[in-house]
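Researcher: Re-running this chain for the archive, since the previous output was lost when a drive failed. Same request as before.
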Amino acid sequence: MSTTTSTPKQPDTRGLAGQSAGETSVCAVTQTELLYRGYEIADLAANATFEEVSFLLLMGHKPSEVELKKFKRDVIALRAVPTSVREAVAKFAVSCPNAHPMSVLRTGVSLLSHVDTDCEDNSPAAELQKSMRLLAQIPTLIGICQRSRENKPILEPDATLGHAANLLWLINGRKPSELEARIMDVSLMLYAEHDFNASTFACRVIASTESDLHSAICGGIGALKGPLHGGANEMAMEMLKEINHDCAGGAITVEAWMQRAFLEKRKLMGFGHRVYKNGDHRAGILRSWGLQLAEQLGPDAKKWFDIGDRVQAIMLKDKAIHPNVDFPCGMTYFILGIPVPQYTPIFVASRITGWAAHVMEQHANNRIIRPLADYKGPAPRKWKA
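Model: Regenerated C-alpha cells:
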C-alpha cells in the first residue's frame, strides 16, 4: 500500500508579508498594542496632544512643560512658506485641476527643499530643523492648494491656534469649535506613526542611500498617495456617498447594496489590515470622537455614522473583516467639512512626524537597504543562437 505526502503550503511572502525588515525604537505594532516610543495609542489619544506626540516622535522622549512650550512656539514661527513656493503651489492647483492634491503637495515639499538652506545637511541638528519646518509648513501647503482650487483667498496661518485648529482654519476659513479642533488633534495623533508601513519604508529606503530628508519625504508622499495605503480614507467616504445615493428613498437597503458588492467582488475600502487581524486599535477611538460631533450637528451628519455602522456590522458578520482607521476617518473628516481630496494630504500633515523620525533613525545607524530577489525568469540563453 503506497502513501503520498503533500508538500506543506509555503506562506505567501509577496509584499514582504510577515517579514522583518529591520529594527526601530520609534513604534511597535502588535495585535494588542500600538506604541509610540513605549506609549500606547489609546493613552495618547485620551491624554496627550498632537504637539506632544510630535515632540515625542521627533525628540525621542516626552516633553517637559518648558520643552513643549518652546516646541510649540518654534513650530508656529515656521508655518509661513516662502512667496515663491506659495505662488507655485497656487498656480499648479488652479492650472492643473486634474492633479491630485497629493501630487501638488509632493511638488510643494520638493520646492521647499530648494529654499531650505539645510537641505543637503544630514546631521542630526539639521534634520531636526528640517523636520520641524515640514511639520509646520505642510498644513500651509494644504491650505494654499485647497483655497486655490476653490478660487478663494489664501489664508495666513493663525498663531493663536494650535496645530490641528490651524489646519482646519487654513482649509475651511473658519475657526473650529473646541470639539472640532480636538477631533482633528486626535486624528492627527492616530495617523502619526505605524512602524514599517509602505510609505515609511519608502522613506527609509531613500534615506539609506544617504539622500536628504526632503527627498525621502517626497517618496513617502508618493507611496501614501496609493488607495491601498493613504488613499483608503478617500475611497471609504466615496463608497459611503454611493451607498447613501443608491439607498435614498428606500430604493435599496444597505444590506442589499452590500450583498451586490460582494457578488461583484468589489474591493470595499477601509476594511482589513496587513497586520491587525482582530481590529485596528485606532478605528474605535476615531469613530467615538466623530460620532460625538455627528450627534451634536444633527441628523444630516449622524446619517453617515448610521450607514457606516451598518456597513461595518455586515462586513464583520459576512466576511469577518474589521474596519481600519480609514473607515471612521472618512465619515469624521466629511462632517468636519473637509473636501474628500484633502483627506490623504491631511494624513501627510500627521505622518510627517513618523516619517522624519524614521529618516533620522536610519541616518543615525545606516546601511543601504538592498534586499535580494528570487529570479523566476528564463534560464540563460544566447542573443545570437
